[in-house]
Amino acid sequence: MQGTARHAHEHVSDLDTTLDFVNTLEYCSTRTHEEYGGVHEGLRTPADAFSWLLARHLLHEDKAPPADDWAALGRVREVRAAFRELVDASVEERTPTPESIETVNELLGSRQVPAIEATADGVRLSHRHIAPPVDEALAGLADALVTKLASDAAERFRVCANDACRWAFYDESRAGRRRWCDMTTCGNRAKAARHRDRAKVDDAPAAGSAN
User: Is 110 within 8 Å of 120 (Cβ atoms)?
Assistant: First the structure.
């Protein structure tokens, strides 16, 4: 009997995947995407969004909405914005907006419910679908995020200190003092900028010196 076996398709993700989803909208001032207010939109079409979810096994291929379902894309972006607001609020040590709380709570109610199904020699644990496929997929992304945000570890959420990046990430460093999404990119750029600023100060003529 397989009463304790886990079903192979669980529709859940880890925190890294959820933050990758949040970062599909990049607040990168070095790029010009005027139609999105100066940011880079990684999910520009419904097909982009559904492909992203399919690639991470959060959505059944035969349940994916039509490629022209712009309403479903709007839902994906709405949830992404709510996730981002929760992260930003944690970083800024403030209360998230009521709208973001409502969106995520509604989403959590879309999770599949446990169910058993018959096998040749007994039953196995499976699940039943109770919500639209896209909402179920997004609910799989929500679990890891809300679990961490509701724990003592919420203080480890970060937004890259590079104002031209603002990538959301989770600080797993031992000291818990990480400021940059990646030291080899944003961190090095910040170091270079500080070096240039110091050089300008060193090269500036002393106050009151003769011309």
Answer: no
The reply to whether 48 falls in a domain is yes
Structure-token pair, residue 162: 């590079």
pTM here is: 0.78
State which amino acid sits at residue 93. Answer: E
63: left (phi over 0), alpha (psi -120 to 50) or beta: alpha
Task: Name the residue type at position 209.
Answer: S
Count each helix (H run) and each strand (E run) in the chain, helices first.
6, 6
CATH classification at residue 129 = 1.10.3300.10
Residue 58 structural domain: 15-176
As given in the structure block, the two tokens for residue 138 are 């997004």
Domain membership of residue 44 (yes or no) is yes
3-state secondary structure of 10: coil
Strand, coil or helix: what is 169?
A: strand
Q: Which residue has the tokens 């999404």?
A: 181
Distance CA 106, CA 114 (A): 18
**How many independent structural domains does the chain possess?**
1
Q: Could you read off the pLDDT of 140-188 as tens digits, one per residue? A: 999 999 999 999 999 999 999 888 788 999 999 988 888 888 866 685 5
